[in-house]
Amino acid sequence: MSAVRCARAHVVGASVPSGLRMAAAYAWRLLAVGVAVYGAFRVLGRFQLVAVALFVALVIASVLRPLTDLMARRLPRAVAVVVSVLGSIVVLLALLALVGNAVAGEWERLVGEFGGGFNRIKRWLEGPPLHVSHTALADLQGKFASFLASHRSTLISGALSGAGRVIELVTGGVLALFCSVFFIHSGERLWLWTCAQLPEAARSRWRVAGHAAWHTFAGYTRGIIIVAGTNALLVGLALFVLRVPLALPLALLEFVAAFIPLIGSPIALAVATMVALAGRGPLIALVVLSLIVVIGQLEGHVLHPLVLSWAVRLHPLVVALCVIAGSIVAGVIGAVVAVPMASVAWSVIQALRAPAAGSLA
Q1: Which of 30, 47, 49, 228 has a beta carbon 3.0–4.6 Å from 258's, enabling a disulfide?
Q2: Is the Cβ–Cβ distance between 243 and 304 less than 8 Å?
Q3: How far is the C-alpha of 220 from the C-alpha of 307, rounded, in Å?
Q4: CA nearest neighbour of 182 among 89, 36, 54
Q5: 10 Å Cβ neighbour count for 102?
Q6: Whole-angstrom Cα distance, residue 210 to residue 205?
Q7: Cα separation values, 298 from 8, 20, 46, 228, Å
Q8: E strand or H helix that includes residue 48
């Protein structure tokens, strides 16, 4: 009976077209990969603070590692790590203090400019070509005020929950700094120790995968920092020349937003456009709006190909899909980490394929 069943199964399998068999084989494998990825994201979601802290620690290590290696030629390794980490903290705090002083020094003038800018916006809406009635604008303003009054308790509770998020942010920052010190000081030894715990047959492939992953991640991080710094410098100079209020904080916002590929810079420049509209009028706002097109073209066709092509080899369509999928899964954090995670995964696959292809050749 078993022989008869095997023969029938063989006949049925032979009658199935080869294309359908191949599609079914790929389908269940893709389904298994999708379930594994979903499970990984669920686990990371339960330990989001730890996962984000480790990601930030890897970013810090990738940025400070070259500087530490350079100083370690003349200083002890531990001293070089302490100098690079503490120096970076001092630079970051000085930049935040500079931004805070800029905002505090211009606050009174900004209040007056925003008040006048709001009146200019109202006159512009009431004039040609829109011809919005004064009654409609007053009704919209009244609805906004009533919305704030009716949702005051929600806003207060949101602010209180935001205070709890600040505590989590400080905790995550301390954990990331603590981990980054060890990654900078002895990252290779940590990875070699991890590989030594694996079965001997798998160690060499894990070493290859780890080397490729770190090379891609470090290259992406350094490259995106260069791109973000260039964007922030161009935006800051343009806003300073146009005398737009809060030029320095808006440039810093552009630097941070550039870490979200494709959509970060346009969002930051849209905020700058609104500030320019309120503070300097519609004409300057149009000039700032044109920066979105210019900087977008510069970033997409010059900076990204030159800076990131050697580290990240992903098609722009893949980048867009990764950003959207990451934002759906984990919000802003997912949008930030999606592209480097996809780049690392692709580089690992390519690195693991290379030895097999070489042996077959």
Answers
A1: 228
A2: no
A3: 9
A4: 54
A5: 16
A6: 9
A7: 63, 45, 39, 12
A8: helix 48-71
Taking the C-alpha atoms of residue 53 and residue 180, their distance in angstroms, rounded to an integer, is 9
Handedness of CA 9, 14, 20, 24 (dihedral sign): positive
Digitized pLDDT (tens) for each residue of the chain, 361 residues in all: 555 555 555 555 556 677 777 888 778 887 887 787 777 777 766 777 888 888 899 999 998 998 998 998 888 988 999 999 999 999 888 888 887 777 676 666 666 666 566 666 666 666 666 656 667 666 666 666 666 566 555 555 555 555 566 777 788 888 999 999 999 988 888 888 888 888 888 888 888 888 888 988 988 888 888 888 888 888 888 888 888 877 888 888 888 888 877 677 788 888 888 878 777 777 888 888 887 778 777 776 666 666 665 566 677 677 778 778 877 877 777 778 888 888 888 888 888 887 554 443 3
Residue 129 token pair: 């070509």
CB count in 10 Å sphere of residue 53: 21
Residue type present at position 268: A
Residues 314 and 247: their CA atoms lie apart, in Å, by 33
The two tokens of residue 153 are 């308790």
For residues 272 and 250, the answer to whether their CB atoms sit within 8 Å is: yes
* Burial (Cβ within 10 Å: 0-12, 13-18, ≥19) of residue 153: exposed
Give burial (CB, 10 Å; 0-12/13-18/19+) of 145: exposed
Neighbours of 285 (CB within 10 A): 22
Please, are residues 269 and 295 in contact by the beta-carbon 8 Å criterion? yes
Contact 9, 1 (CB under 8 A): no
